[in-house]
Amino acid sequence: MPASPKDPLSEDFGTLAEVVAHRARTAPDKTAVVLGEQRLDYRNLCDLMDRAASTLQTSGVQPGQTVAICAAASLEYVAAFLGALRAGAVVAPLSPSSTGESLAGMLADCDAKVLFLDAATAIAMGRTAQALTPTRVSLDGSAAGLAFMDWIAAPGATPQDVRPAPGDAFNIIYSSGTTGTPKGIVQPQELRWAQLKSRFYSGDAVTLISTPLYSNTTLVSLLPTLANGGTAVLMPRFDAEQVLKLSETHRVTHAMLVPVQYRRLMQRPDFGGYDLSSYVMKFSTSAPFAEALKAEVLMRWPGGLIEFYGMTEGGGSCGLVAHEHPDKLHTVGRPLPGHDIRLIDEDLKQVPQGEIGEVVGRSGAMMVGYHNQPGKTSEAEWWSPEGLRFIRTGDVGVFDADGFLTLMDRKKDMIISGGFNIYPSDLETEISQHPEVLESAVVGVASDRWGETPVAFVALKPDATVTAEELKAWTNAKLGKTQRLADLILLNGLPRSHIGKVLKRELRDDYGGPREQAGDTGPGDLGQSSKG
Q1: CATH 2.30.38.10 fits 338-411, yes or no
Q2: 302 within 8 A of 346, measured Cβ to Cβ
Q3: Residue 102: its pLDDT value, please?
Q4: What is the CATH class of 414-529?
Q5: Where are the strands (E) in 178-224, listed by range?
Q6: Which pLDDT value is given to residue 337?
Q7: What is the pLDDT of residue 125?
Q8: What is the pLDDT of residue 518?
Q9: CB neighbours of residue 517 within 10 Å
Q10: What residue segments make up the domains of the chain, in order of their start?
Q11: CATH 3.20.20.150 fits 198-309, yes or no
Q12: Do 252 and 233 form a contact (C-beta atoms < 8 A)?
């Protein structure tokens, strides 16, 4: 790749591979990626990227074709991801926790020409999924495929330059659906380029990566760190104690954590014993971030805190600069610069200021569409009266007089009981006020009398003594008549996705109705219930 006279990030458009190559020329000895005792500087990261790209090209992978990665975090994972991009391929990072059937569906959908994997993934895949990938490369040197270091070209290999257009696909991120094959969200080069130019990262950034590498939540933090010449500290899996130790050891400056991770960190009695003074900025996204938890993080953890609200599909995003607006912690902030956020009603008409509606947004960062699913793509779009394309979020919210967005709930999670709209988040907020409650989730279940009725699932703090019936009565005394809970279930913990979202569908599907006696676990072994 020819030398670049200036930082490629100063250009209107470029590629991640160009930027990494530039970092290798200007700061070759700078550490790029760390995992445990392993380190890669930019010189060696760029070399591995080029060697992987060369082999992909000589093996027949064409620009625009897909290369899949399904493995735990590793230095080789990062090099393979960059190598695929350098070769002009589209990257499809897949979840190693997926079932063999789900992996087979995703591999078939994206028509992957090469699969990078590890031993654990090979076991999970089974023969059906393995048969869908003609070339498998093992990132951990196991018998899952050709060993990565044997497969890549010799040191110094130079792949052919590939210059994608802004609208060409960068990656395919598969949604975390619980049934069937997840939807493949095709993100274009221009979407990622906008993220790489993030003003929050610099060459001095040391970013802790505690979420899985296949997650969009991770990529919006990892990729800008590398593009700006910083250092990414990888974690093979989240562990609250290790987050604190790594933060202190590596003098971490940035971290993208999901709300449940912040909660687990704040709960540690030894949290205050670690030196976290190096932190410049902390981020959060992907799941609702409780107002009280934001306040606690601001009070106890040095550095700023920014919550991002948006979708993997792109569209419009909001940002709450929490340390600058401590009076707005109940919101997800204002639309980011260049992002147009509007609210629409059931008739797809824009609602006036101060009224509740579904959130739709547009910006320079929007998905191309759902891979091979034009119908689903069309359903996700809203066209404004001016003919502009927006992405529908399915979230319900309202703007306040200062332009800050407060989210009510997912549109599909809103409960309609006896003709009244009930927002689960309102009920969850009330439940959370009880001193013995750790977290809660409210879902609507079928009711012969009301159509739907709210049921709460609650995890208590350690040593709590309140019963399900007592907590239900306490909560209902604080709620309006139309909001009252039909049942309340005590659980050890709420089921969550890999990025911390509560799986409300799983709670709803497992619910078997009010049990007659507390302690009867009933269908799904959900735990203690109040009487219906």
Answers
A1: yes
A2: no
A3: 82
A4: alpha beta
A5: 184-188, 206-209
A6: 93
A7: 82
A8: 30
A9: 9
A10: 37-188, 198-309, 338-411, 414-529
A11: no
A12: yes
- What stretches in the chain show pLDDT beneath 70? 1-5, 128-130, 176-181, 419, 513-532
Tokens coding 343: 């609210």
pLDDT the model gives residue 176: 62
Task: Locate 27 and state its tokens.
Answer: 């700061």
The answer to whether the CB of 137 falls within 8 A of the CB of 116 is yes
- Alpha-carbon distance 364 to 166, whole Å? 11
Please state which of the four CATH numbers 3.40.50.980, 3.90.79.10, 2.60.40.2550, 3.40.50.300 is assigned to the domain occupying 37-188.
3.40.50.980
DSSP codes joined into one string, 17-86: HHHHHHHHHH-TTSEEEEETTEEEEHHHHHHHHHHHHHHHHHTTPPTT-EEEEES---HHHHHHHHHHHH
* Torsion, CA 143, CA 145, CA 149, CA 153, rounded to 10: 150
Q: Residue 184 and residue 171: Cα distance in Å, rounded? A: 9
Amino acid identity for residue 173 in this structure:
I
What contacts 440, CB < 8 A, 6 or more positions away?
428, 431, 432, 456, 457, 458, 459, 494
Torsion from C-alpha of 199, 201, 203, 204, nearest 10 degrees: 120
| pLDDT at 293 (0 to 100) | 93
- What would the pLDDT profile of 184-197 be if each residue is shown by its tens digit? 999 999 999 999 99
The tens digit of pLDDT for each residue in 383-392 reads: 999 999 999 9
Cα–Cα distance measured from residue 53 to residue 47, given in angstroms and rounded to the nearest whole number:
10
pLDDT in tens, 383-428: 999 999 999 998 989 999 999 999 987 777 878 787 677 888 889 9
Q: What is the pLDDT of residue 180?
A: 54
What span, in angstroms and rounded, lies between the C-alpha atoms of 349 and 346?
A: 7
3-class SS string, 130-168: HCCCCEEEECCCCCCCEEHHHHCCCCCCCCCCCCCCCCC
- E strands along 253-302, which residues? 254-256, 281-284
The pLDDT value recorded for residue 153 is 97
pTM (two decimals): 0.83
DSSP reduced 3-state for 352 = coil
Residue 70, strand partner residues: 117
Contact 7, 227 (CB under 8 A): no
Q: How far apart are CA 369 and CA 483, in angstroms?
A: 38
pLDDT value of position 127: 75
Element (H, E) at 196: helix 189-196
198-309: same fold as 37-188? yes
